[in-house]
Amino acid sequence: MSGGATEGARENGGGVSGRTATGTQGDGGGVSGRTATRTGTEKGGGMSGGTTTGTRRGGTAGTRRDGTGTRGPATTPAGRMAALARAEVTLLGRSKGTLFAAMFVPLIMPFSVRSAADGMDLEKAGLSIGTVVLPAALGVSLLFAVYTTLSGVYTARREELVLKRLRTGELRDLEILSGSALPAVTTGLVQSVVLAAGCSALLGVEAPAALYYVIPGFLLGVVMCVAFAAVTSSFSRNTESAQVTTMPFMLLSLMGSGLFIPLEVMPDRLASVCELLPLSPVMSLLRGGWSGSLSAGEGLTALVTALAWTAIAVFAVRRWFRWEPRR
Predict the structure, then answer these.
(1) pTM here?
(2) Where are the domains of the chain?
C-alpha cells in the first residue's frame, strides 16, 4: 500500500511556500517512515532565512542554519597555540639530533666554561667562578635550546608546507610562530631552572643580588632568540643549511657576548665593541644582576640595548620571514 499528498501555496511579493510529503510502505510487517518539512520566505524575488529539519526512525536529527551546519565551540588564541604546541612536541621528538642538541648540550657546556674561567683573573674584575659559569649556562641554554632549535623548526615546517597550510585556517601569523616556539621555549626555561639550581649548589652561588635585572634580561633573551631564529630560517634553504646559517650568531654570542669570556676581563676597546652584539646586554643583565655589580645607569643601558635588538629582530621577521619554500 502506498499513498502521497502534496499541497503548495504562494503569495506574490511576500510569498510563502510549503510542502509536506508522507509515505508509508509495509512489506512483511516492516514499516518505514520519513517526514520532511521545509519552510521558506521569499520577498521581492529573494530568499532570506531557512530551516531544514529531518527525522528518521532509528536515525539522527540535525539542524542547519544558513547552510553552514551546526557550529562547534569557539576557539581561542591560547587554545589554538596549545594545540599547535602539542603537535610540535610530537614532531620534535622524532628529530633525535635536534632533541639531543636542545636537551643535553646546554647541560654539558658549563664544564667547558668552568675550564676556561680557571685561567682568568676574575677577582680583579669583581667576579667569581660561580658568577661566570651560571650566567654563561643560561646563555648557552638560550642559544641551543631556543635559537638553534627554532631555526631548524621554522625551516623544516616551511619546506614541508606546514606554515602555508596553517595560514589558511584560524591561526594568525603571530599564533603560528608563537605556538611553534612554545616547546623550545619551555625546554629553555626548564633547563635554565635546573642549571641555576645545579650551579648554585655545586659552585656555592648565592641568590641573585638584583633579581629585577635577571628576570627582564632572561625574558628579553628568550624573545630575542625566538625572533632571530625566525630571521635565520628566512635565509636557510633547508634544514641542512640551517645548521650552517646559525653559526655566525652562535660564534659571535659564545665568544663576544660574554658567555665564555666575560666582558669585564676583556680589553676596554674590545669590550666596548662586543657590548654592541645582540646577546651582550642580556648577559650583562644576567651576570650583573647575579653579582650585584651592575649600577643603575649600566642596567638601564643594557635594558635599552636589549629592547632595541629585540625590536630590530621583530621588524626583520615581519619584513623578511618566508612562509613558503625557497625556490
Answers:
(1) 0.75
(2) 77-320
